């Protein structure tokens, strides 16, 4: 082992090598960064040797010398790669949480670029020439769309829940049905966020059944809030019962000291139910029942950038805006810009709303999906005969913890390669540029064109052509 350790070259010798100079010039990386990477690899090699590992075959001074330079070059190439990059979502899951959820509309993207590349009136009142508030930027649009008295935006719906509980129910009892103590992605639990907010959880009912009298019996002088959590990421089927929002509003109206807050989670501004898609409540319909506050996500069914939207009674919204956490949880100018144009699409009518990719893809006609699938199959067959292609009937999911149990009929192209297994092909597609994320079923790679745009098809074809000739 001591003999092998003596083979490790010093840093200054490696710095004199042509490969070192080439890395600095071709990758435009400062010498200090290349040197630091070399030192890290030397330390790692020394540790491996001490622990009895032999990462270099036929060890010698020259072999170690070249090994360190080669590994350094590899690590520097990886370091220069983009960490966040484009992915073609061929899974058919419209709001794929792992792939960034909602895609933004062209108008939203244009507005975000314009605001990001220039100064803006984020906190400046152009009319008065004085300081303004970012809370005012989108409030009129949200009031118009939802029918609420007031509105504000924070950085996601989890933040909205926390802010409402902390600002309005700290050290007070908050009544929640046991069947609504949900956990969503990333182990975010309603009960845990209530604990963090210093609100006191009061559970009522059972997992599958909660009655009106359960709430009535739980209300005391120390009750601060009734919280209804929309179970948007799961569905309980069978012997179940829950209390309607209107009935909870009626209870709340008997107790002036109690706030009724409904966390909708997804928050739909488009009537998908009229098209036979799910039964997600519209935000404006919930507001009309008389609830005090409603919160929902901006990057789920709404189809905008990540954000949490709170709408409701003006007095409560004003308290939220003035709370110290409002600054901690605020969103930036680009999110406001993207959300503004997304909201405008809803105001301009149903057809304009369908320009929002989330709404467009969820409501995408079957004949359009089939047309894309046929077009792709014909084009790929002309490029290469290395694949077997089948057009199959399947189903898509909406995803993002939204509309559980709702399956959208779709068409997929089932792809199999004459040499590669389906798992191996899927892996190669994921590591393609751009990355192509697919489903695998029955030894076929499935491409669901519900979530593939016409603009992405040429890149999709090129990816398959490149990988076909293995």
Quick summary of this structure?
By secondary structure, the protein is α/β, with parallel strands linked by helices.
Structure description:
Its main location: cytoplasm. Pathway: Aminoacyl-tRNA biosynthesis; selenocysteinyl-tRNA(Sec) biosynthesis; selenocysteinyl-tRNA(Sec) from L-seryl-tRNA(Sec) (bacterial route): step 1/1. With 470 residues, the chain is an alpha/beta fold. It folds into 3 domains: 2-80, no CATH class; 87-96 and 362-468, Aspartate Aminotransferase, domain 1 (Alpha-Beta Complex), CATH 3.90.1150.180; 106-355, Type I PLP-dependent aspartate aminotransferase-like (Major domain) (Aspartate Aminotransferase, domain 2, 3-Layer(aba) Sandwich), CATH 3.40.640. The protein is 42% helix and 19% strand. It contains 20 helices and 17 strands. It has helices at 2-6, 11-15, 18-26, 31-50, 61-80, 106-116, 139-146, 157-169, 190-197, 212-218, 245-252, 283-288, 314-322, 325-328, 333-347, 350-353, 357-362, 366-383, 422-430, 457-468, and strands at residues 87-89, 124-125, 130-131, 150-154, 173-177, 183-184, 188-189, 200-204, 223-229, 259-265, 293-297, 308-312, 387-399, 402-417, 435-437, 439-441, 444-448. Strand 13 and strand 14 (402-417) form a beta hairpin. The two termini are 41 Å apart.
């Amino acid at each position: 082992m001591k003999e092998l350790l003596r083979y490790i070259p010093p840093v200054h010798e490696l710095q004199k090598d042509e490969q070192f100079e080439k890395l600095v010039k071709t990758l435009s990386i400062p010498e200090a960064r290349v040197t630091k990477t070399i030192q890290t690899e030397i330390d790692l090699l020394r540790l491996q040797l001490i622990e009895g590992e032999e990462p270099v075959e036929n060890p010698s001074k020259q072999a170690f010398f070249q090994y360190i330079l080669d590994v350094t070059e590899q690590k520097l190439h990886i370091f220069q790669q983009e960490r966040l990059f484009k992915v073609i979502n061929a899974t058919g899951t419209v709001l794929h949480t792992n792939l960034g959820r909602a895609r933004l509309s062209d108008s939203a993207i244009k507005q975000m670029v314009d605001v990001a590349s220039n100064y803006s009136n984020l906190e400046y009142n152009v009319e008065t020439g004085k300081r303004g508030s970012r809370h005012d930027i989108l409030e009129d649009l949200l009031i118009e769309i939802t029918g609420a008295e007031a509105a504000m935006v924070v950085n996601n719906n989890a933040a909205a829940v926390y802010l409402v509980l902390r600002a309005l129910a700290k050290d007070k009892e908050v009544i929640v049905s046991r069947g609504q103590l949900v956990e969503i992605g990333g182990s975010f639990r309603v009960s845990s966020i209530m604990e963090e907010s210093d609100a006191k959880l009061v559970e009522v009912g059972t997992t599958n059944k909660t009655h009106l009298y359960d709430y009535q019996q739980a209300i005391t002088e120390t009750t601060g809030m009734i919280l209804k959590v929309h179970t948007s990421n799961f569905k309980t089927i069978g012997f179940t019962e829950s209390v309607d929002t209107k009935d909870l509003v009626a209870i709340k109206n008997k107790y002036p000291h109690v706030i009724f807050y409904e966390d909708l989670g997804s928050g739909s501004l488009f009537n998908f139910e009229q098209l036979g898609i799910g039964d997600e409540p519209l935000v404006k319909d919930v507001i009309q029942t008389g609830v005090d506050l409603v919160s929902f996500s901006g990057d789920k069914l709404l189809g905008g950038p990540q954000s949490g939207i709170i709408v409701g009674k003006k007095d409560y919204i004003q308290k939220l805006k003035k709370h110290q956490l409002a600054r901690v949880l605020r969103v930036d100018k680009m999110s406001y810009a993207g959300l503004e144009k997304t909201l405008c699409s809803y105001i301009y009518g149903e057809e304009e709303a369908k320009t929002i990719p989330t709404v467009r893809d969820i409501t995408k006609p079957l004949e359009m999906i089939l047309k894309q699938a046929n077009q792709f199959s014909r084009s790929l067959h002309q490029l290469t005969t290395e694949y077997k292609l089948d057009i199959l009937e399947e189903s898509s999911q909406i995803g993002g913890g939204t509309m559980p149990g709702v399956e959208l009929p779709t068409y997929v192209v089932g792809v199999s390669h004459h040499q590669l297994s389906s798992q191996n092909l899927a892996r190669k597609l994921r590591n393609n540029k751009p990355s192509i994320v697919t489903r695998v079923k029955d030894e076929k790679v499935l491409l669901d064109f519900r979530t593939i745009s016409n603009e992405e098809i040429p890149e999709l074809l090129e990816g398959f052509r490149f990988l076909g000739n293995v």
